Each structure stands twice: as structure tokens, then as C-alpha cells.
């Protein structure tokens, strides 16, 4: 297993068109994220990465929405530019985070997840999507042509490994769904849920090219909470009179 830490400079994907059939993948993940955002509430929603900025979240109940990307990105939809390994937010200040295909293109995905855990409020939600290395979508990396070079530079981690990282940080995985199955999209880049796609989804659920996870930040107190009501104890012995031996008998 290769280490997750990489000292090479990585650049995030700026547009969904840099992914094979990226617009179809965008529509598929958009539908899943819209459904999960219905369970997110609070004041601040953070979208990390240029691909996350393209996700439409107007229907979300959280009004204040922030688009953030790294300083190496050339996307113009971002409101804050900063290092993903050092998020410029206070601890426990964000209610929900949406991050689409970012950890595959960062040099230290562990630190990115640690920073998200730091800025999230307790019981805050992280909606993250990642490419599945065991899928037909990842097979495009073996194609020797020069198309989708930015996509091929990504480091794809297994979904089980990402779940382990999240659980070690204290996240609870509350939702997992895979999409982008073989034969799911027609040649004209339109969504086509044909019988072949349904067959592939039923028999090979692991073959989805992308996976959407929802992780909830959990925090438990280190000391038990004592009751505020104090009860007065009354001494009530079982034997009220002492026993003695009659020596005259």
C-alpha cells in the first residue's frame, strides 16, 4: 500500500469537463448531494474545491455558503483562496462541508481531513465524493493518449481506506452510495438507466466509478455529566436496637 503523503505539488481539477463524461457525473452526484443536503442545517456551508463550487446548493437550508479553493487553482467561482491543509476558519465554526474529488489531487489528504474535522461543529456533516480505483472509470488512466491528463494525475484511494481515515478522526459514516456504473450513460453523454446499467449495479455494486459519503462529526465528553439535583440521604438502620446477651439466664 502506497503512503498517502506525497511531496509533489498537486493541482485540483478546475472543471468537470476534465473528467471522462464529467457532465454526466456532475448531474449524478448533484442529485445525491441535493438529497443529503436536506438533512443539513445551520449557518455556514463550506464548499471546498472548484468542482464543489459547480454544485448547485440553492435549495439548501443553510443560507451562508462559502466557496473555497487552493491558491494553485484557476477557478473564478471561489470566494476564498487558501491552503487546504490550513483552513482559514476558526475551530468548530462550520455546520456542513461539501468536497468533491479533492483528496485525490492533494499532497496530504490526511491533513485535509483533519482540518475539516477541526472546523466542523459537533454533529456537523461532511459530504465527500471520491473516485473508485476499482472501476471502469479508473481504467481511463491506462489509456496512453493525451486526453484527460489532469484526471490521470490523480491518486485514487480505495473507498474502504477513506472510510478508515474518517473513522479514525471520529467521524461516523451515515451514508454511502456509488454512482457512474458501466453502461449508465449513453454515448451522447445523457443519463441512460438502461437494463445494462441496472444489471451492472445489481451484480457489481463495487464497480461504481464514484462514491458519495456522508460523515458526521461525533464528540463525546471525557467525564460523565453529574445530575444537578442532590438528594439528602437519611440514615435508616435495619436494626434499631442493639443486641446483647443476658448473662443471668
Q: How are the SSEs placed, and which strands pair?
A:
Blueprint: H1 22-37, E1 44-48, H2 50-53, E2 64-69, E3 80-81, E4 94-100, H3 109-119, E5 120-131, H4 149-152, H5 159-169, E6 171-179, H6 195-203, E7 210-217
Parallel strand pairs: 1-2, 1-4, 2-3, 4-5
Antiparallel strand pairs: 5-7, 6-7
Could you explain how this protein is built, in words?
The protein is an alpha/beta fold and 249 residues long. The protein is built from 6 helices and 7 strands. Strand 1, helix 2 and strand 2 form a beta-alpha-beta unit. The longest helix has 16 residues. The radius of gyration is 26 Å and the shape is elongated.
Q: Provide the residue-averaged pLDDT.
A: 85
Number of strands: 7
- Anisotropy-based shape: elongated
Which sheet architecture does the biggest sheet show? Answer: 7 strands, mixed
> How many angstroms separate the termini?
89 Å
Strand order of the largest sheet: 3-2-1-4-5-7-6
Order of helices and strands: HEHEEEHEHHEHE
Radius of gyration: 26 Å
Helical content (DSSP H or I, runs of 4+):
10-25%
Task: Give a quick precis of the structure.
The protein has six helices and seven strands. The chain has 249 residues and is of the alpha/beta class.
What labels describe this entry?
alpha/beta, 22% helix
